[in-house]
Amino acid sequence: MVQKRDHGGGLDAAVARYGGTRADWIDLSTGINRVPYPVPSLPAGAWTDLPDQGATDALCTAARAFWNVPDNAAILAAPGASALIAQIPRLAPAGGVHIPTPTYNEHAASFHMHGWVDAPLTAARAQVLVHPNNPDGRVWTRSDITAPLAIIDESFCDVTPDASLIDASTRSGTIILKSFGKFWGLAGLRLGFAIGDPALIAQLAEMLGPWPVPGIGLHIGAAALRDTAWAQTTRHRLDQDASRLDTAVTNAGARLLGGTALFRLYQVDDASAWQDRLAQHHIWTRTFPYASDWIRIGLPAPHEWDRVEAAL
């Protein structure tokens, strides 16, 4: 049996333990923007027709413009970054992989499932850099990319676009991952992108098969990626809200360790006790099995601040 891995979310279990209904809860455990992109009206065909190439091309064109993807890098839309993470280890024969920890645990799980073993960077045939890192917000540089197969996971980089390593997508053996669910707050849409080495992107496309992204994802994703004004306004709000959350949590006795403008990581005396106290107010947060004094808290929506600050 495959062991269930530790993630944010799991709100059903919190409801079962602490009571209330899902609607009563504020889920700050995931780092997903709680002010999602407003879903536009959709053509009827988005629901009834097989996704066509024109809509797929329109989405990828919008993505290429939004992320400033170099002309000689390929781009693939997928049903979420997780679907890509599950397939990437199949792109090369299994060997040693270097994944600096702590970080998002699905990368290591996927590589291990396909026969790869952990290795120091000097001996690794593959490496994964989560940029900025989850949960501490660490950022990497182009000089850190050295392995023949290099995966740069930029799922949380849309809040700091100037830090993106998208220029590295022209490097042979390199793939940049993008997640639509975090910054745009539409995780249920299941949309992600792989950008990079055309040969590797072509392999991934074959692995995913035809019509990997549903019609609704193609239309909503393209509209959101074209809406640069919404993105700019959202970044400004998230920056302000991150500072507000830091003030509230550190005033309650925590110490800021890092994070991004979508989630903040704090050191506390007892993370389980902090999580329990906030859960009594139906506010869900993230703790980590490897660090009993770490708690990660996402940013509330504007109408949720009073509840969060009162609970703290």
Brief summary:
Strand 9 and strand 10 form a beta hairpin. 35% of the residues lie in helices and 18% in strands. The chain is an alpha/beta fold and 312 residues long.
How would you describe this protein?
- It is a single chain.
- It is built from eleven helices and 13 strands.
- With 312 residues, it is α/β, with parallel strands linked by helices.
Q: How are the strands ordered across the major sheet?
A: 2-8-7-6-5-3-4
Envelope shape: globular
Largest sheet: 7 strands, mixed
Helix content range of the residues, please? 25-40%
Count of distinct strands: 13
Topology as a string of helices (H) and strands (E): HEHHEHEHEEEEHEHHHEEHEEEH
Annotate the secondary structure layout:
Layout: H1 11-18, E1 26-27, H2 45-48, H3 53-66, E2 74-78, H4 81-87, E3 96-98, H5 106-113, E4 117-118, E5 126-130, E6 149-153, E7 174-179, H6 180-183, E8 192-196, H7 198-208, H8 215-226, H9 228-251, E9 255-259, E10 263-267, H10 271-279, E11 283-284, E12 286-288, E13 291-298, H11 305-311
Parallel strand pairs: 1-11, 3-4, 3-5, 5-6, 6-7
Antiparallel strand pairs: 2-8, 7-8, 9-10, 10-13, 12-13
Helix pairs in contact: 3-8, 4-5
Supply the key terms.
312 residues; alpha/beta; seven-stranded mixed β-sheet; four-stranded antiparallel β-sheet; 11 helices; 13 strands; 35% helix; 18% strand
